[in-house]
Amino acid sequence: MTTNRTTTDSDRSAAIDGVRGLAALSVLLFHAWLYTRLEVSASARETTLDYAVHEGRLGLVLFFVLSGFLLWRPFVAAARGRRPRPGAREYLVRRGARVLPAYYLALIGSVVLLWGAAETPGVRLPPAELLPLFLVFAQNFNPQTVMKLDPPMWTLAVEVSFYLLLPLVAVVALRLPRHRVVQALVPLALLLFGVLWNIDIAGERSIVAGKLLPAMLPYFALGMLVALALDGRAPFGRRAAYALLVAGIALVAADALWQAHGAASRSTSYAFRIWRDLPGAAGFALVIAVAAGSAGAGTALLRWRPLAYLGTISYGVYLWHVPLLLVARHLGLLSLHTLPAIVLALVLTVPVAAASWHWVEQPAVAWARGFTRRWRRPVARRERVAPEPGRG
């Protein structure tokens, strides 16, 4: 019995890593297409393949939904009385150790690699005097820095904002009744706030308002709802898992087609600006539910070792692939064809991301665990929580 449970937990962990790997790979494919264009512009789409590969951008949305799910799980268990409340200091130190060292290393690397390549198509450098904004994750607040230097880093600014918000949201959740429906009001309120924010900014032309946390809150909220829905639940059966998986993939595909049709018709409908990729995010939420909540049904691809390993090193892949693509183009090493560019991007990025994981990220995470362990035992003694029924 113990062996079966361990295997299942390991399979779920591998499946979640596979989800990360898919997200990282799709973003890499999108940028390999983008930075091999003669005109480096995501709006310059001509063929069906252009429109299809462009939707690799949805990997960004998947990362947001996955963050909402993973980070809200311990707070859900605490709010529903199934485990001790996570300490704010422990949470912040661990989040900082997970994100900051690799981020700052990639930031320095981006400056070193790209600062002398300003004339290369695709390289967009911020004013030197505004570089300190990147140090405090404030680049999204200024139109001269948002989407500049290493463009994917704009999402890290959103992620860090979410990390800081979450303990405050948890205070509200911990004061509510433990019933699942009542607890759902917290992520639903965040989702509603995000939609209202996007309604308010729908007519704006500035890029800044759409790159801040409130605009992305619906994606995080959907992940939080999955965490609540799975808390304490038995694993899905095979039929339920496959039904959720098919529904999730269908929603992601429908969102991609909707967005591609709007781009092809040059639609300026407010619907695109308000709802953004919410259908795709809902689809990703269902896929994550299957990955984390099934007994392995439908997750064989996600548990494929190369994909799961790519998920393990996905943070480094995400941080480094664009600077490496751009410096390769600057040096004349990048073929202006998508498929060879994808191969080159993987060849360049995977070793760097692996080094980041093994030599920077993993040691930082291990240090944070050891450093904060002293804070956990007193909390566990003070709070008496009933043993968790069923699976962990």
Automatic annotation (TrEMBL):
Gene Ontology molecular function: acyltransferase activity
Keyword presence, Lipid metabolism: no
UniProt EC number: 2.3.-.-
Keywords: Acyltransferase, Membrane, Transferase, Transmembrane, Transmembrane helix
Acyltransferase domain residues: 14-356
Transmembrane segments: 21-38, 58-79, 100-118, 153-174, 181-199, 211-230, 242-261, 281-302, 307-327, 339-360
Superkingdom as given in the UniProt entry: Bacteria
Major enzyme class: transferase
Name of this chain's protein: Acyltransferase
